[in-house]
Amino acid sequence: xxxxxxxxxxxxxxxxxxxxxxxxxxxxxxxxxxxxxxxxxxxxxxxxxxxxxxxxxxxxxxxxxxxxxxxxxxxxxxxxxxxxxxxxxxxxxxxxxxxxxxxxxxxxxxxxxxxxxxxxxxxxxxxxxxxxxxxxxxxxxxxxxxxxxxxxxxxxxxxxxxxxxxxxxxxxxx
Length: 174
Fold this sequence. Notes:
This protein is mainly β. It is built from 1 helix and 12 strands, in the order ββββββββββββα. The strands form 4 sheets. It has a 5-stranded parallel β-sheet, with no helix packed on it.
């Protein structure tokens, strides 16, 4: 377990934070406002099932590719809030069912980086308001045959193409 607020405002942390596979929980605000973190590495065999609120929020240099571990079922509010250097978001499995509010929210435009493709897994049931606010994607691929419930302004500021599974246009148009 990495405790709540364990490394909050810790400017001594630098580079890529490597989360051991054995960690089952990361407390809220654990790495909040750690301005020198440049990346986070979750191992493929991670035991994490929930990414708690604001754990990497406001880490201004955190960027590169974010790989959400396969066992994660829930991503709480503000987990990667205002991390403007993220270049890719990958969901490794099909267990993710819910994403909270403002998970990848970016406060100010313009964002210099455009993320190639966002793949939303078929297990995803709900996405909170403004989850990808001001994020710039080339395209979004939704794998679920039933559209997830989405909050307001989920993809605000983006004009990308959204791809849905073949044969689901009617369901998505409702």
